[in-house]
Design goal:
alpha+beta, three-stranded antiparallel β-sheet
C-alpha cells in the first residue's frame, strides 16, 4: 500500500535524504519517494501509517494534518 503524505517542512534535497534515511533505518526495504517541489513523501512499506508518520516527525519534519 502506498502512503502519500504532504510534508510542508521539506525545503531541499537534504530534507529528502533525511526523511528517506530515517524510514530506511526502521524498514530497509521500504520504497520512499520524496518530491521536494510538491513537498510530498510517498512510502510503500510494511510499517503502519502511524509508524511512518512518527518517523518523519522524529526526523524533524511536520506532516500536514498530523500532530
Amino acid at each position: 500500500m502506498a502512503l502519500q503524505l504532504k510534508v510542508p517542512s521539506i525545503a531541499c534535497n537534504g530534507c529528502a535524504e533525511t526523511i528517506t534515511d530515517t524510514i530506511h533505518t526502521m524498514e530497509p526495504d521500504a520504497k520512499v519517494d520524496v518530491d521536494v517541489q510538491a513537498k510530498t513523501v510517498t512510502v510503500e512499506a510494511q510499517a503502519s501509517e502511524e509508524t511512518i508518520k512518527q518517523a518523519i516527525v522524529a526526523a524533524g519534519h511536520t506532516i500536514e494534518g498530523y500532530q
